[in-house]
Design a protein that fits this description.
53% helix, 3-stranded antiparallel β-sheet, mainly alpha, 267 residues
């Protein structure tokens, strides 16, 4: 019975999680599970000493966040200095969390989630002008597309978490982060940009999806060169999946360089 109860409490029993309390300003603190491996899909409760940030409870049956009574949705344009610093402190984990695909392949000191998003943002900045595509929006989407990983970590296909469940977990995490930010127009914009990418619902999202894959195979080529490794998996998993002409051309250039370096070794 005990083992059955434990399995029910954690649907991913092989996952190693540790609880970490993240301290913010005098207003409140948040206790999240800290994920060194794929996370449990449940976020812990958030308890605040600020009456405007009343207790938030999230579990597997909740989509979005629920605030305490008498806490109307904020409509202010910008977060307070305190909320901004709290949010940025939480986002620090994007800088410190390494991308798991590289760890799984034994790459020492691999890129962080923030490293990955930063170079994607540069891709959006330097890409050719494309009719109908808003470059500034592409940059914004690139900046926020993996932002929920500050809480859930980098969940990869090898973790065995279904795509729908991964999306639900990340939505809950994003709701939590926007609550930390204090709601308002900036939080709403982050939600909108993230959803646009998640659902691949615009030309900008199509392009940034391609940048995500281009950045990954470019990083794979760099690690192959630096570490003398063969990382075929990353090239095979993206083959034929680029949606835009820019993505296809950039990917072709990376593959051409890889083949030249390896004596035209087929992928």
């Amino acid at each position: 019975m005990a083992s059955a109860a434990a399995a029910k409490a954690n649907p991913f029993p092989l996952i190693n999680t540790n609880s970490r309390k993240i301290g913010f300003s005098h207003k409140f603190s948040i206790k999240f599970p800290f994920y060194s491996d794929p996370p449990s899909p449940r976020l812990l409760a958030v308890h605040s000493n600020n009456p405007n940030l009343d207790s938030i409870k999230m579990d597997q049956n909740v989509s979005g966040f629920v605030s305490g009574p008498g806490n109307p949705k904020s409509s202010h344009a910008s977060p307070s200095p305190s909320a901004a610093i709290d949010f940025l402190t939480l986002c620090h984990r994007l800088k410190s969390t390494k991308r798991k695909g590289w760890l799984n392949h034994g790459i020492k000191g691999p890129e962080s989630i923030a490293d990955h998003m930063y170079r994607m943002s540069l891709m959006a900045l330097i890409a050719d002008e494309v009719p109908g595509i808003n470059r500034e929006r592409c940059i914004k989407i690139a900046i926020v597309h993996d932002i929920a990983e500050a809480i859930v970590g980098d969940i990869t296909p090898s973790d065995g978490v279904p795509k729908q469940e991964k999306s639900r977990m990340e939505q809950e995490a994003l709701d939590e982060m926007c609550k930390v930010l204090g709601g308002g127009m900036r939080a709403e914009e982050i939600q909108e940009l993230w959803q646009e990418y998640e659902t691949n619902s615009s030309l900008e999202a199509n392009l940034v999806k391609d940048f995500d894959k281009v950045e990954m195979i470019l990083q794979a080529l760099e690690y192959e060169t630096e570490h003398g490794r063969i990382l075929d998996e990353f090239f095979l998993s993206t083959a034929g999946k680029f949606q835009t002409e820019i993505g296809k051309r950039w990917a072709a250039e990376i593959i051409s360089r890889r083949n030249s370096r390896s004596g035209n070794r087929p992928n």
